[in-house]
Design goal:
Blueprint (H helix, E strand, L loop, with lengths): L12 E6 L2 E5 L9 E6 L5 E4 L7 H6 L4 E5 L9 H8 L3 E4 L3 H4 L6 E4 L9 E5 L7 E6 L4 E4 L3 E2 L12 E2 L19 E4 L9 H10 L5 H22 L2
């Protein structure tokens, strides 16, 4: 099973669906479980976040409304942002500190600092160590939290009874400050399926137990995380 499938996607799977959006896996059989999402904004427009293109996805987006913008929230999630932006004739929105991914985006971009347009989401910078930059997006109005890389639900992230796990390299110093005053109703992630039940408990456990469970995570996921990191550095997808 490949870490990240680079072929043409054939059979995407919808993994998250709620009244305010949806999520999909363009390559449901890959180990890295790269998830893409679309959120309905406060003014009704649709915001496509860290997307990978796949057959039939535009039909799914139409059920939510008209695409307003494409958003990239990790230095390693350029993915197919340009493709979606060109097809829907919308800009790509980027946090101003994501310099690596900015070099990979060809379509005209809009830089954001605190809020993503009219989506209702605020963003918070998460930079656990040099070379790692992403933005956590949170909408307090409906309790939707999106985390690109530092947390995930894919087996590559979790150990034991964890429903949500901290990326291995961040476990010794988990970025608790980035999640201060966040009480999510749902947690969507860039790698894995979303959490819709007892989300605050899962978030607290992931951060509080990250360091304690580091040895188990290293033993179980260490080699896989190295493969994933190497693959991400190679393509930005």
């Amino acid at each position: 099973m490949p870490m990240y499938d680079r072929g043409a996607p054939e059979d995407p799977v919808i993994i998250d669906r709620w009244s305010g959006g949806l999520g999909w896996l363009a390559y449901p059989d890959e180990t890295g479980m790269r998830a893409s999402h679309a959120f309905v904004g406060d003014n009704g427009g649709v915001w496509v976040v860290d997307p990978l293109d796949a057959p039939g996805i535009d039909d799914e987006l139409e059920t939510l409304g008209e695409v307003t913008g494409v958003v990239v929230l990790s230095n390693y999630h350029a993915r197919d942002a340009d493709t979606f932006a060109a097809r829907h004739d919308v800009p790509v929105f980027l946090p101003q500190w994501l310099s690596r991914v900015a070099e990979q985006i060809e379509n005209p971009s809009e830089y954001v600092v605190e809020n993503i347009g009219t989506s209702g989401f605020e963003i918070r910078r998460c930079a656990p160590f040099p070379g790692w930059d992403e933005a956590i997006a949170y909408r307090e109005a409906d309790g939707t939290l999106y985390v690109p890389d530092v947390l995930g639900t894919a087996p590559l992230f979790t150990v034991g009874e964890e429903r949500l796990g901290t990326y291995l390299l961040c476990r010794l110093f988990p970025p608790r400050g980035a999640f201060e005053d966040v009480s999510p109703e749902r947690i969507l992630v860039g790698h894995g399926t979303g959490l819709f039940e007892n989300a605050p408990t899962a978030l607290t456990d992931a951060l509080a137990g990250a360091r304690r469970r580091f040895p188990a995570a290293l033993l179980q996921n260490g080699w896989g995380q190295i493969r994933a990191l190497t693959a991400a550095l190679g393509s930005g997808r």
